[in-house]
């Protein structure tokens, strides 16, 4: 493709629309970056007409040279090496050769909270450790391998549900906790399920918020996260966050993306969604602990069908169904009240 020529690219949008972005490509290298990344951006929404290859390359180069405006706004990535971790006066615990960051709040029945992919203790709004502790619980919250302030490895095998469940198991061992309720969101819910299957004597109760997709339902998550991985690979994390933040409804996702470390993010996506053994919902019937599920409608990445499948598979499990993913974000106190009542074996008022 020669410099200065008008070039058009057509991409498939949602089922009811197709659209074309036609821009003047400034250089062959810019066109190459554009071809590799533009189709990957689409799962996050429509691109504005002025978002062309030259701007992408310019943003990338300026981000590498001077640092990202997104990082300045939302905060820089967290420590990534043992030396950086050890210089901070924060609680870390050694788990399978890594330093994992954790926090402990309150007293009472013990609950371990596990966040979702891209999440961390710092970004938790619904499953907030302080709010849960205020309900009379001893809350242990931790940043999973490759997330938040915890260290990471670069092998995708270390990020399968089975491997992350073993991290959780060894975390309990390191903290001297024999048995605990596990409260997990999305990825964390999948890890909680896996722990209940592999270490059933360590799990008192399960609380699963927005459980991950199973079987064929995993395809939308793979499409979106493959897109994110490609963008971060070719453009870098700061620029990816900036682009996503410009798309409709992308501000919250951009904030999460901006805190990621590319060397950890790529194997996490690969290990959880592509290479690692998927969660086998056929085994959920083996789980014999009280289980409370929070689901919602209209979310392809966390289909309500997952919550219903778990409810129907685990004896005695109950399901709360919200109208949308926003409900629990807008009502975190209600979520914490229901979780505390369930852990204390009080009436949970389940519905659905």
Plain-language structure description:
The structure is a single chain. By secondary structure, the protein is of the alpha/beta class. The chain folds into two domains: 6-78 and 220-261, no CATH class; 88-217 and 273-343, Rossmann fold, CATH 3.40.50.1820. Helix content is 41%, strand content 17%. Helix 6 packs across helix 7. The radius of gyration is 21 Å and the shape is globular. Strand 1 and strand 2 (18-24) form a beta hairpin. It starts with 5 loop residues before the first strand and ends in a 9-residue tail after the last helix. The strands form two sheets. Strands 3-4-6-5-7-8-9-10 form an eight-stranded mixed sheet, sandwiched between helices. A two-stranded antiparallel sheet has the order 1-2.
Element layout with pairings:
Elements: E1 6-12, E2 18-24, H1 28-41, H2 53-66, H3 69-74, H4 82-86, E3 92-95, E4 98-105, E5 110-114, H5 129-133, E6 138-142, H6 161-174, E7 180-185, H7 187-198, E8 203-209, H8 219-235, H9 237-246, H10 251-258, H11 262-275, E9 291-296, H12 304-313, E10 318-322, H13 326-330, H14 332-343
Helix pairs in contact: 1-2, 1-8, 6-7, 8-9, 8-11, 9-10
């Amino acid at each position: 493709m020669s410099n200065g020529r008008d070039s058009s690219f057509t991409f498939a949008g949602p089922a009811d629309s197709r659209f074309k972005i036609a821009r003047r490509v400034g250089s062959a290298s810019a066109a190459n970056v554009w071809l590799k990344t533009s189709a990957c951006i689409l799962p996050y929404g429509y691109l504005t007409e002025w978002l062309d290859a030259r701007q992408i390359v310019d943003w990338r180069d300026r981000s590498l040279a001077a640092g990202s405006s997104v990082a300045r706004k939302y905060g820089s990535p967290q420590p990534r090496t043992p030396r950086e971790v050890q210089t901070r006066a924060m609680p870390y615990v050694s788990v399978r050769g890594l330093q994992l960051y954790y926090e402990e709040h309150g007293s009472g029945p013990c609950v371990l909270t596990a966040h979702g992919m891209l999440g961390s203790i710092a970004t938790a709004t619904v499953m907030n450790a302080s709010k849960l502790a205020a309900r009379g619980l001893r809350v242990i919250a931790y940043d999973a391998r490759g997330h938040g302030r915890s260290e990471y490895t670069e092998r995708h095998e270390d990020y399968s549900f089975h491997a992350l469940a073993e991290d959780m198991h060894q975390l309990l061992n390191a903290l001297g906790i024999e048995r605990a309720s596990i409260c997990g969101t999305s990825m964390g819910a999948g890890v909680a399920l896996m722990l209940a299957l592999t270490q059933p004597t360590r799990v008192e109760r399960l609380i699963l918020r927005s459980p991950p997709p199973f079987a064929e339902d995993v395809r939308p998550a793979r499409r979106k996260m493959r897109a994110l991985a490609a963008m971060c690979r070719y453009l870098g994390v700061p620029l990816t966050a900036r682009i996503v933040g410009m798309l409709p409804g992308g501000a919250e996702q951009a904030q999460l993306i901006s805190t990621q470390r590319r060397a950890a993010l790529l194997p996490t996506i690969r290990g959880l969604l592509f290479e690692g053994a998927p969660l086998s919902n056929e085994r959920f019937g083996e789980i014999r602990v009280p289980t409370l599920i929070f689901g919602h409608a209209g979310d392809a990445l966390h289909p309500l069908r997952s919550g219903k499948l778990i409810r129907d598979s685990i004896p005695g499990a109950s399901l709360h169904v919200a109208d949308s993913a926003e409900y629990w974000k807008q009502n975190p106190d209600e979520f914490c009240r229901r979780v505390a009542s369930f852990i204390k074996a009080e009436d949970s008022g389940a519905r659905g």
